[in-house]
Each structure stands twice: as C-alpha cells, then as structure tokens.
C-alpha cells in the first residue's frame, strides 16, 4: 500500500555532545496511475531526485510516503465516508495530510485525472491541505493533455485551499523511453518548479 523511505540517517554526527537530530522533510506522493510501472512515476522519480539534489547541502533527510491508489484495495474503493473507513486507509490518508510537501501525480484519461485518484482526495479532510505546498504532475499521450494541470488538477486543490506550486509539470509519451524521462525541457521545468519553493520547503523541515 504505502512505502516510507528515509533518504539519509535520522541523526548526524555532532561535536562532543554526540549525535544531532537531522531536520526532516516529509514528502507524500499520491500516484494515480493504475500501472505497476508507469511514465507517471518515472516523472515523479525525477522530481524526487531533483529535490534531493537541491537539499544535499542542507542536512535535511527526506521521508517519503508513496501512495499507489490502485493498490489500496476494496477497503478504499468501497469507502464512501471518512468516519467509517478502514484503519489502514485512515493511516494512509493521515500520512498524506501531515506531509510537508504533496506531489499529486496522475496520467490523463478522458481529459482528466483518474477515478481512483479523485476518490482518494474525496476522502481527504477538507481543511487538511490548506496552505500545504502541492506540486502538480501529469503524463499523457500528447501535449494537448497538459491542459489537465490548469483545468482539472489546480481547481481540485484550490478547493482544498492548498498552496499549489506556480509551475506544474507535464510530460507526454514522446518524452520517455519506456518509463525513463529523457527530454531536457521537462527536466528544466522540474528544476524551475522546485527552485521557486525550495526556501519554503527548507523552512518547513522539522527536527526529527
């Protein structure tokens, strides 16, 4: 369901006083793709690698929670109200709600995000994402699908009063070799998106 990875140890070597706790940046990825291996997660992997590179000199560890909505099972797909949801789904929702940065990523189907992606956010608390930085990412068959970022994803997170990053990221099928992102232009857009908010993310990191 959800995997949580630490990119670095939780402590760093201090002086005579011993180990000093690192600051931690909690990142949640909600992956709307129904595929085991997908271009969508190929794009997200580059986002995470770029962010890790920008934080390399900041002594901040990245704690990553990845939610693949297609793996959540009947307890998720059959849930209609948060109040009666299964405990494991509640835990997943809370990890996303408590993250310092949310990466919301989906392939484009019929001009919009996937159904299970939307269902996940139907269960998120209405105010839990207020002022939370959200990076919007999407993949599709052609460049015309990029409109999903502004006409579907941004309004969705506007409802939550989230702080969507000014620069969103889209990659089409021609930007990939399999699930590996190749196009320099997309790499550049990812760098631009993160550069805009790197100071905010560093400020949001807390002592673990």
UniProtKB/TrEMBL annotation:
Its EC number is 1.5.1.38. GO terms for molecular function: FMN reductase (NADPH) activity. It comes from the Bacteria. Gene3D superfamilies: 3.40.50.360. Residues 26-175 form the NADPH-dependent FMN reductase-like domain. It is an enzyme of class 1 (oxidoreductase). Transmembrane segments: none annotated. Keywords: Flavoprotein, FMN, Oxidoreductase. It holds the Pfam family FMN_red. Signal peptide: none annotated. This is FMN reductase. It comes from Spelaeicoccus albus.
């Amino acid at each position: 369901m959800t995997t949580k990875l630490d990119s670095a140890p939780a402590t760093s070597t201090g002086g005579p006083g011993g180990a000093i706790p690192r600051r931690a940046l909690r990142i949640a990825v909600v992956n709307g793709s129904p595929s085991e291996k997908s271009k969508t997660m190929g794009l997200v992997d580059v986002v995470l690698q770029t962010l890790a590179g920008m934080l390399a000199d900041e002594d901040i560890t990245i704690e990553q929670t990845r939610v693949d909505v297609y793996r959540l099972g009947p307890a998720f797909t059959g849930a209609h109200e948060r109040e009666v949801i299964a405990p494991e789904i509640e835990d997943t929702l809370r990890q996303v709600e408590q993250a310092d940065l949310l990466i919301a990523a989906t392939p484009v189907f019929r001009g919009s995000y996937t159904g299970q992606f939307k269902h996940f956010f139907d269960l998120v608390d209405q105010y839990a994402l207020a002022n939370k930085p959200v990076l919007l990412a999407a993949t599709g068959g052609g460049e015309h699908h990029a409109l999903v970022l502004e006409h579907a994803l941004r309004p969705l997170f506007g409802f939550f009063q989230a702080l969507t990053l000014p620069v969103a990221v889209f990659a089409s099928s021609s930007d990939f070799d399999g699930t590996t992102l190749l196009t320099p232009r997309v790499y550049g857009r990812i760098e631009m998106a993160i550069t805009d908010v790197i100071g905010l993310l560093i400020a949001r990191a807390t002592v673990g």
